[in-house]
Structure formats: C-alpha cells, structure tokens
C-alpha cells in the first residue's frame, strides 16, 4: 500500500507536461503561419509592382518611335507606373534613343532605330523597374536608287 500511496498525482504532472508541450507546438504553428502569411503578402505586392512596370513598358513599346515620357498612371487598385526609374516618380523620363544601327541579314539600304525603355511600377509602396533595349524597324536608310 505504501508504494501506491507514493505515486499519487503522477498522472496530473504528466498531463500538465503534455499540455505544456502541446501549447508550445500550437504557439510555434501560429508563429509559422503568421510568418508565411507575411511572406505571401510581400510576394503579392512585389508581383503587382512588377506587372505594373511591365504594363508601362508595353505602353512605351507600343508608342515607338515616339519617345515622350509616360506620366504616372494608375494601373490597378493601388498600382501605378511611369517611365524612368523609381526616383523619376514625380517627373517621368523620356525613352532613350540611340540612333540607327544595322542588323545581320539586311543590306545597307535598311537600318533599325535603337531605344531604351525604362519603366517603373509601384504597388502598395513596393517598386520594380524594368529596363530593356529594343530595335525598331526595318527602316529605309542611306540612298535609295
């Protein structure tokens, strides 16, 4: 009888230890879920900013050979885009023209114009810039006989 008497309350201690372990597992799961939700939200904002810059890039591509700047334009719920870099938000830059260039497969009577398009997109404070050089043509060049 002495032996049973000394093990009294062991089940309560084991139950409390198991409860403590399950509490730590629950807190860890909540922390991980919160962290993953923040990552997913940041990714969504980054992708929205990229798509806004891509939209402005396409506008610039479609307006060639005109190199006028594209003003800050609302694209989505809280997404904007403009030509230039993030620092050009208030005063967009014109598209850069690098003049005429030749391409393989075309004789000297044809030329292409080279341009650089910089476009920035912003979404919920995140900014992404797209930069590309494109050629426009073929255009008649030189003397035409």
Order of helices and strands: HHEEEEE
Radius of gyration: 31 Å
Low-confidence stretches: none
Helix content: 40-55%
Number of domains: 1
Question: Looking at the structure, what is the overall shape?
Answer: rod-shaped
Overall residue-averaged pLDDT value: 91
Distance between the termini: 120 Å
Q: Could you characterize the architecture of this molecule?
A:
The protein is of the alpha+beta class. It has one domain (2-140). The protein has two helices and five strands, in the order H-H-E-E-E-E-E. The chain has helices at residues 2-6, 10-63; strands at residues 73-74, 79-83, 96-101, 110-123, 126-140. Strands 1, 2, 3, 4 and 5 form a five-stranded antiparallel beta sheet that branches. Strand 1 and strand 2 (79-83) form a beta hairpin. The radius of gyration is 31 Å and the shape is rod-shaped. The relative contact order is 0.16.
